[in-house]
């Protein structure tokens, strides 16, 4: 699975792709996008507190992502009269579906993406992102993998945000070319990690 930091970054990117920071109303929306990006891992509470292992982890399905995004959108619409909260449905859906997408890109564990339509979980034969690692402050691999994940993920998310905002190619090309060599090295490192 991807780290909570990576998932939160994807939620922020979904927010930035469809909202302007200059819009004061939209400044209350990032927590909604971040929550949608991390909420599929709330099933870990059942694992940690009750030692219950849900199988399949339906919180990582497209259906769960669609349901949570629709619920957040309907809730935001109900607030619009008194306190408008700009939350475009496609942005909320992108935040929600970013979670299973990132977990799929780790390649370490299968994801029940098509549940309930299909029983077999989907997996990739290799990982593009590193696994989060055991959550312990002294765990070297946690910090190493977090660094690799952020160096691989943040530039990709920045390009997605720039494309969604229709930033001119010239404005993106030079920073992208400057970051590309480092990005490629970290991507190769990530793909080469033992899963």
From TrEMBL:
InterPro entries: YdjM-like. Keywords: Hydrolase, Membrane, Transmembrane, Transmembrane helix. The keyword Mitochondrion does not apply. The chain crosses the membrane at residues 32-52, 58-76, 88-108, 141-164, 171-192. It comes from Luteimonas gilva. GO terms for molecular function: hydrolase activity. This is Metal-dependent hydrolase.
